[in-house]
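Continued from yesterday's entry.
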Amino acid sequence: MALNVVCQDRNDASWSETLAVLRAALRFGDPPLRGIAWFLSELRFADAFRWQSAGFGTVVDEAAWRRLLERCWAARTGEERGGAAFLLSGLCHWHPSQIAALGERTTLLSQWVEEVTEESAGGLGRLLNDVAQTEGGRDVVRAICAATDPHRIAAWLNAVTWSQAWSQGWLLGRIGYNATPAWRERLREDLDIAALQTLFSSAADAELGSLSELVEGIAEIDYELSLSLLDLAAPAIGGALSRSPVEGWKAAGQLILFFLRFYSPGLGIPPPTRQQRPIGKRIARAVDPVAVASDLSGSRRRDWPVYHELLIFLKSTMPTCAREVIDRVDLAALDRTIGGMWSGMPDELLRLVWAMFVAEGRGPGRVSEWVSSHAEEFTGVTPHLVQIAPTAAAVALRKGHRLHLDVGKGWGWNSALLAMVELENVDRQLAVKVLEDNQNDIAKGFASLREYDSIGVPYVLQILHKLVPKLVPTILDKIDPAIAEAHWAKRLQGKADERGAAAALIEAAFEGSDELAALATRLRRRFPRASTIPAPKA
């Protein structure tokens, strides 16, 4: 904060004096390299240095740069090399010749990697990661990795302990990503699989964060091996999620969501593979639903996004466990925490009740009844809330509150569709009014059609024709043809669901303006097969 105040404007009358003070801070008493790296990193957030290359020729002048490089190259201990690596990475933003200087020292830097310690691994990982993403830096990083002896890397990996696993796993991932296939194969030949299996079999709650980083690092060398090692640790992960669901998920959640791909559908992330899914099931099988329910009952607002992800994961891997959590949660205790939040319905609460609804089976039950009991408190309605408690949502809508279908960005179709189906079952006229109120948003969404959950678009068109047929041409006339052409053409070259959504919109476009109909004709000529809705099979 103080640095940002001091370094706001280069046109300030005292700018030259400010630079002099900052330069002196780099030199006076030769401060620790890690401290200088931190200082320069914080400076980058100041307004005067925020944009790319803005630091060149300012704080780190030629004399300071050469002195800092001299100190970095002289680093001997693990702690010194770690600080030096952080600083060498940071200097890329402060001197135009930094990448070239690193390119002249690839042999020395590869030696640092070979002789890595717990203190130096984090800095070296940052160096390889950041330099590879800097213009001209990828070749430098590849040269460092090529000069590194894979046998020595295997030696420190075979001896890694949990206290070293996070930083060395992070470094290993950066090496593996930038190394050649032949280099990775040489490393694999020297791995002590039994030692790694022993390590992963001994994982405990405190090691989950380190375990996650080490698994991802090993995956860059041998993906199949990383899965087999993670499988050994599955019971420990499930046990940690039972003993402390929130802390356990913070440590292992990213691994489960992205490495094993147990993420909510509709975000373009491929589903778990045949190798990944059994590991997720073994983790879930080790989760105690009674313990999770007890912790959820006493949870706080800050915990609810975590519970959203955890419950969705349990539902996708072990539905009986997810259902038992909901059966045993103390809703009265949760209500005491929620208090008056039902009226404003913050995102954290909505995500929690949605996950609980999904975990219970997405139908009438405890969660639906619980949410419905607060119908008089609602001051807003969302598509998810309509699905959870359609009758309660109707009460709020009759009071004049709005339901925003939230499809204007080109996605959200499935949620909107299901909400409209539920609302129609409760009150058809309310459903009609919601569609009329959202016509501009629907038109924008149709024009900017995205790949996410596009499977719902043909069904949205069907419900529009069913409930508000006279409104359909009006919505189509609101579509911007230029925006639609760009997005629809992309979808016609995408997956089956995308092609089907675009084809349905092209078919409907002939009901719209002449300009939109002309667009539909052009796209059918460009994509004759993809843009045509297949005739139903006899």
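--- second protein ---
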Amino acid sequence: MASSLATASTAPFAGTISDLFGRRPVALFGAGVVIIGSIVTGCAWRVEVGIVGMALVGMGGGLSEVVAAAAVAEMAPVKSRGKYMGSAFLFVLPFGASSVYGISLPFVNVLQCESASFMDIEENSYQGEEVQSFAAWIVD
């Protein structure tokens, strides 16, 4: 959720920022922020730190996504720009489905738990039961 909100809040300003500083530095900065956010998320010792890390990943992803789309639009010939843009976004499509699955998974676990505390969700997800519980929820 933090990643999606950060992407949605950063993406509208990415074009203006890339016009001011150039596309390449902004794309590299966005990729660097994604890497730093991934490291922070991976090394998180508390939930709050993990949320901040995911927000950094979303912010960098928002910058990189918009700048990459603008770069493809600039480099592609006008006659076949739609094919190039469609191909570029076709590669991103599987990641969208995985983020929807990742966001919905805690809510599915909350529906199945008797007490909806964070520790219950944490126990269920770290024991590898999230796929089993999600599959059982779909089958029911």
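The mean pLDDT is 76. The chain has seven helices and no strands. Will compare against the first tomorrow.
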